[in-house]
């Protein structure tokens, strides 16, 4: 079991998690160029998500964990040698990292289940909780270490050390046991093809199996999470723009995750005091308010310390809201989703987010390049207000009101 936890720590030890966009900016890539690469990354995730998971289930999860580590290693090598103007190399790195993350993030939990099942299925939840805790510790350690390395040494050192971590992860993965899957009944090739076609048709007709009001709610949730995710991602280069160094930026994002946990704790109190039918309209407006702090910091001649404080406070408020909605919104999606499609429903929401991110990130990057950070944050605030307006129109529909009343009872 120790090897499994060590794998969790090493595989999630990402040194550039809060500095990736800053690194690209330091090489001279514009935010619109970064946005194109990010869109390619999201599309790669979208296209490889289900096929890789399917193949791993059938040909062995350990093999695909190793393939994921190899792809990540090649992507890190691309980033190490990346220079200004080498846009194709950046795109190649985005594609490889998208494939690597899809492989590892989707397969490792299934491997953990198989690993524990060899001992006792009853221990799975406890082991998964420990595994997730190790992952969270790894993310914190990686973020802080990345800030120190990039500031005290350089980004080349950071990606050199990251490559060593990936090599260690690959070596450790090689030592993990090859688990035997539960044998399935003998099937002919025709039987297998018929089953696969049946599964594919079920996936393609998934949306038609959901109630119309729930589909609208799900797409609205995807829109909200896309916009809130963009706030955190675009805050990274903005903090560098206002003068924060890499160590401070990593510390800010680490503390921001603590505010997200605080939001988790506040969710129950808010749900008791505020009706969910009102919350779906209010929460995008609150995030728009958070963005006005970014807008104010971007468009005023404040002393540097005041400007930085305002931008940092805005991120903390945004993370708190995200923490609240991890419970209030995602919780409602999971409860209201059909029993047979709960996992598929969450995957569908994530796929919708990937599409929206692939469209919006390059667009916002283009706006920043043409008119600056103030215009970019203003556009993002406008999208939140538009989402709130659409939620109000939907709520005022007879079916929408009935759906939200049902949601509030859960």
Mean pLDDT: 80
- Beta content comes to under 5%
Reported for the largest beta sheet, the result is:
none
Cα gyration radius (Å) = 22 Å
Number of helices: 15
What share of the residues lie within helices? over 70%
Order of helices and strands: HHHHHHHHHHHHHHH
- Distance N terminus to C terminus? 38 Å
Determine the structural class based on helices, strands and strand pairing: mainly alpha
Number of strands: 0
In short:
By secondary structure, the chain is mainly α.
Q: What report would you give on this structure?
A:
This protein is mainly alpha-helical and 410 residues long. 84% of the residues lie in helices and 0% in strands. It contains 15 helices and no strands. The protein has helices spanning 2-11, 20-26, 31-59, 61-81, 87-117, 124-152, 155-175, 189-204, 212-241, 246-273, 276-298, 304-336, 342-371, 373-396, 398-408.
